[in-house]
Amino acid sequence: MNKLAWLGKKLKREEGQALPLALITLALGSLLIGSFLNSASTNLLASKVFWEKLPARYAADAAIEDAIWNLRYGDLVSLTEPEDSVSYSLSEPVNGFTPRVTVTRVEPIPNLTLATDDFESNSWSGGSGWLGSWYHEGDALITKSGSPYEGEYHLQLRRDSGYVKRGVDLLGESNVYLILRAKAKSFKKDDTAECLVSSGSENWTTLRTWVDGEDDDTYHYYQFNLSSYATEGQLWIAFAAHMPGKGAKFYVDDLRVVVINRPIDYEIVTTVGEVTIRAGVAISGEARPVVSWVIE
Fold first, then answer.
1. What is the DSSP code string of 153-194?
2. Same-domain status, 99 and 122
3. pLDDT tens per residue, range 81-118
C-alpha cells in the first residue's frame, strides 16, 4: 500500500473518533452554559430583591437610630423597669415610609449567679453564694411589714443607724453586676439611704443614693455594673440609712450578684415594608451602645 492510500485510511479512522468527542463536548457545553445562565438569572433576581428592599431598610435603620438617641436624651429615659415599653412613629417620612418603632426595657439574662438573697429565710444567714452572714447594726431588720417585693420578707432600714453589709467571692469573674429591688417611704428633707460597694470592706464607694422625692413606697428595679470594683477576689455590698425622722423607711428585696457577659438592657424593634430590624442596646454609663443588630 502506497503512502497516499495509508494516509487516507488513517484520516477516515480519526474522523470517526472525532465525531463522538465533538458530540460529547457539545453536550457538556450545553450543560455548563445552561447552569451559568440559570445562576446568572438567580443572582440577578436576588440583586433586584435586595435593591428593592434598600429604601425600607434605610428607613428602618433611621428608626433604630432615633430610638437610641431618645434612650439617651429624650423621653425614653423613663423606661427604667423591666417590661416597660413604648411604641411611636417617626415625625417625618423616610424614603416614603413612616417607620414605627417599639422600645422595651428588658432585664439582662445572667451568665452566672454568684450570690443571691430574697430574705425569705427571715434570717441574716439566708440566701446563697455569700462569704458569710449579713453584718448588721442599728435599726436594721428583716420583716414582713411594708409589703415586700415578692414573698413574705424583705430588708428594712430606719433612722440614722440602720446598716448592713455582706461579702461575696467573685470566683475570678469579671462583668459583675448587682441587681436589686428597692423602695423608700416617707423621706423628709435631707433623709437619704445609700448602696455602697468595696473590694475590701473598708474604702467604700457609693453606688446609689435615694433622696426625698423618690419615696413613693413602690419597689423599683436597679442594676449596677460592678466590674470596675471587681479588682480583688472579694466584693462587699452595703446599705446604710441616714434618716433621722421617725417615719422614714428604706427597703431592699430580691438582691443578686451576677455575671452578665453581654448585657442587653433594651430591645428596639421596627418593621418597614418587608424589613424588620431588632437591635439590642446596653447601658454603659451615659452611653447606650448597640450590642446586637439583626435584620430579618
1. -EEEEETTT-EEEEEEE-TT--SEEEEEEEEEES--TT-EEE
2. no
3. 999 999 999 999 999 999 999 999 999 999 999 999 99
